[in-house]
């Protein structure tokens, strides 16, 4: 059943989507250290959502979505900042999809796919999110080098 308070999902602007994306995870004990002291232009890591402060064991996997934005990386991060991401959800299909809840009522279709391996990764993402009190992250970076990041959001929902 859909929530009547949420708007139907809209496609995210095509001109913002990056080169590729993937599901990922980090141990709760490493999440803060991985991003808090880095120079990341857009950072939304509320202290209230620190996994260790919330009592999660340091080895619990915090799931996330990583977007390699390429040349559009900062443009995508700024757009995400403007829509105020609240939560990302894997929605089984067909086709399968990744939906972003943003602001009070908005939802965006980040991507759709029909790959069985990605479907399995989406199921793991949802399971890990449930096991982590709903915590998950959204990371935008120019490429997969891990040298620079454009934006990081720690979300719950």
Brief summary:
This protein is of the alpha/beta class.
Please tell me about this protein's structure.
- This protein is an alpha/beta fold.
- It is 22% helix and 36% strand.
- The chain is built from three helices and nine strands.
- The chain has helices at residues 28-35, 73-83, 116-131; strands at 10-11, 20-27, 42-44, 61-68, 85-91, 96-102, 106-113, 135-141, 151-156.
- The protein starts with 9 loop residues before the first strand and ends with a strand.
- The model has no long low-confidence stretch (mean pLDDT 92).
Distance between the termini: 17 Å
Please bin the fraction of helical residues: 10-25%
Q: Record the strand order, biggest sheet.
A: 2-4-8-9-3
Number of strands: 9
Beta-strand fraction estimate: 35-45%
- Element-level helix/strand string: EEHEEHEEEHEE
Tell me about the largest β-sheet: 5 strands, mixed
Number of helices: 3
Uncertain stretches of 5 or more adjacent residues: none
Report the mean per-residue pLDDT as an integer. 92
Coarse morphology: globular
> Rounded to an integer, what's the Rg over CA atoms?
15 Å
Structural classification: alpha/beta
